[in-house]
Amino acid sequence: xxxxxxxxRNRITKTGKRIMLECSQTKGHDRMYWYRxxxxxxxRLIYYSFDVKxxxxxxxxxxxxxxxxxxxxxxxxxxxxxxxxxALYFCxxxxxxxSGRDNEQFFGxxxxxxxx
Amino acid sequence: xxxxxxxxxxLSVQEGDNSIINCAYSNSASDYFIWYKQESGKGPxxxxxxxxxxxxxxxxxxxxxxxxxxxxxxxxxxxxxxxxSAVYFCAELTGGGNKLTFGTGTQLKVEL
Lengths: 116, 112
Known about the structure:
The complex is a heterodimer of chains A (116) and B (112). With 116 residues, chain A is mainly beta. Helix content of chain A is 0%, strand content 53%. Chain A is globular. Chain B is mostly beta strands. In chain B, strand 9 and strand 10 (99-102) form a beta hairpin. The radius of gyration of chain B is 13 Å and the shape is globular. Classes of the chains: A mainly beta (116), B mainly beta (112). The A-B interface holds A 1, 4, 35, 40-45, 48, 50, 58, 90, 92, 100-101, 103-110 and B 4, 9, 31-32, 34, 41-46, 49, 51, 89, 93, 97-105.
């Protein structure tokens, strides 16, 4: 989805290295999310942010940190990567609000991360 | 804890047949549900949504049915086409309306 971009698209790194995944959006949404997807599993929420000053842990935040640099940018960091963090990572945005459709999340194309 | 799950991990259908993908949810307080489609190498994309005050909602070739009594959600795809091959996820709005919780996904394979 061109409105939500992720860099890099693919990354191979070694155990113990620090790595940052970046997400940018042009949808003007306040809410941003980071998910990880493993084969055969659904999307699991790592962190989410409802505005620049708001950061919340998701269900699997251990080993990860995030930074909301601006409304349009939300980065995910692995301070010391380990092999079981090998996965597909997705960033998403939503507008929020009271309407159900406002909670629709728009996803980026994903980053495939391999930790050796 | 609360969870969203799917009954069948893989569904194979013949081109032109109808597909039915099922989803069970356990959070009775959820009032909004979305079906997403994820094609290979791409992020999930919205297909259709439904609020809990509805039993059925139709889109173009897709219908979502909601049975709150048994906490069951289904996605029906009419006249399935090769382009429908993808993984389909259901998601429910939880956390007081703040988060989407996703099911594990069903792989739909369309056979020619």
